[in-house]
C-alpha cells in the first residue's frame, strides 16, 4: 500500500476521513519515506556523458538516459531511470517538486514556445511515471512548492494566480493571487506560508518585492521592498 500511497488516498472506500485510520495513514507515509534522500537530474544525456559517468555507459546507443541520481559516497552521477514520458521530452520552464516521495513535473513550454498545463508524477518505489490531472491554467517559468501535503503552482509568464493540487482527489483549483504577475522568481515555504521574491513582471521589470501567500487564502500580501 505504501508504494501506491496517493492512489490509496484516492480510493472512495479508503479516504482518511472515511475508513482509513489516521494512524495507518501516517504509518503508510512513514514507510514510503524510508530510504536515502538523493539529488535527481532530468534531461537527455545521449550526446555526452554527464559528470561521473564513464564513457560508453549508455544503456543503448539510441536510448539516452532520462534521469540520473547523485551518489554521495561515490561522488558521481548514476543512472536512475530511462522511461521519461514522451510528452515530457524537450519541455522547458516547468515546475518541479517532491511530495510524499513522489517527484512531480508540471507545466512548462515546448520548443515551439507553446505553454502546457500537463502534470506528471514519478514514483521511485515502482520506477514508473503516471499522468495526473492537468492544471486549469497553462503556465511556464513558475514555481511549484509542496506545502502541508499539497502542491502549489505559483505565477508564471504574465500570471499572478496560484493553483493548488490535492493528491487525495487528483484535482487542481485556484486558491490565491499574487499582487502582480510574476515569472522566473524565487519561492520557498516557511511555517506554512509561501514567500515569493524577485522575478520579472509582465513588463519585464525586475521585481525586488517580497510577497507572502497563505495557503487557503484568496490573495497574497506584500511583505517588503528592496
UniProtKB/TrEMBL annotation:
Keywords: Kelch repeat. SMART domains: Kelch (SM00612). It comes from the Eukaryota. Pfam families: Kelch_1. SUPFAM superfamilies: Kelch motif (SSF117281). Gene3D superfamilies: Kelch-type beta propeller (2.120.10.80). PANTHER family: KELCH REPEAT AND BTB DOMAIN-CONTAINING PROTEIN 13-RELATED, KELCH-LIKE FAMILY, MEMBER 42. This is Kelch like family member 42. The gene is KLHL42.
